[in-house]
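Pasting as-is:
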Amino acid sequence: MSIRAQAHGEGAALRTLSGTLLRSVGQIVLQRHAGTGACLLAALALCDPRLACAALIGATTANVCAVLAGHPDDAIRGGLAGFNGALAGLAAFTFIGDAPTALATALLAAAAAGWLDAPLARGLARAGLSVYSTPCLVATWIWLALRASASSAPPSPAHAFNAPFAADGAVPHSLGLALRALAGVLSGVAQSEFASGAPAGLLVLAGIALSSRRAAGFALAGAALASAVELACGTPLADFDAGLAGFNGALAALATLTLGTRTAFCATMFAAVLHLAAVRCGLPAMTAPFVLASWCAHRTTSVAR
C-alpha cells in the first residue's frame, strides 16, 4: 500500500470516528447530524470546557462498549449507541465537583449505559417504544443511590450558571422582563445537555436547526410551554433562569413532533407536570419526565390508530 493510500485510509477512518462522536452528541437532542453535535459541544465548552470533555469521554466509552458488544454498525455510526454515554458523562461531571471522582464515575456510567443500550432498546421496541435516555438514567440513578448511601447529604450540581440578560434595572422594566423570559427559555433548551444560559441555548437551538428548522421551533416552543406551566405552579425564578423548568418540555416536544402539534403540546404539558412532581418529591428525575411523557404519547397514538 502506498503512503498516499495509507494516509487517505487513515483520514477516512478519522472522519468516520469524528462523525460518529459528533452524531452521538447530536443525538442528545434527537438529531442525527454531526453539525448538531458540534454546536452542542460548543455550547458545553461555553459553559465549562470540562463538560465538553465529559460528553466526548462518555460518547467514546459507550461507542467502544457498543462495538465490543456487537451493536449494529448503522446504530453506532448514527450516534444511537453513544449518546447515552455522553449524557452519563455529563451527569457525572455535573453532580460531582471532584474532577478525578467525576472522571472515574463518568467512565463507569458511560460504559454501563453503552452495555445497557441494546437490551433495553430491544425490550422497548417490542412495545413500540424508543429507548431515549433510559440507559443513562439507569446508570446514573445507580451511582447516585450509592453515593447518597455513603453520604448524608444528597449530591448537588457542581456547575451553576447565571442566566444573562436578566432584568436588573439597566433597561426598561417591560424589556427587562421580556429579555429575562427569553433567556430562561433558551436556558431551558440548553439544559437538555446539562448546559445553561442564553448563549448556550442559542448554540443548541442553532445546532438543532442545522438538522431541522421545524425541530428547532418545537424545541423552543416546548421549553417555553413547560417553563410557563412550572412557573405558574410556583417554580422558583432561579430555577427558571437556570433552565431547569424547560428542558424536559423541549425534549418531549422534539420526541413527539412527528405525531402532530396537538400531541406534542400534550406531551410537553405532561412532561412539565411530571418534572414538577419529581421536584416536589425531591427525586433526581433528570430527563425521566420527558421519557415517560413521550412513551405515553406514542403508545396513546398507536392504540388510537
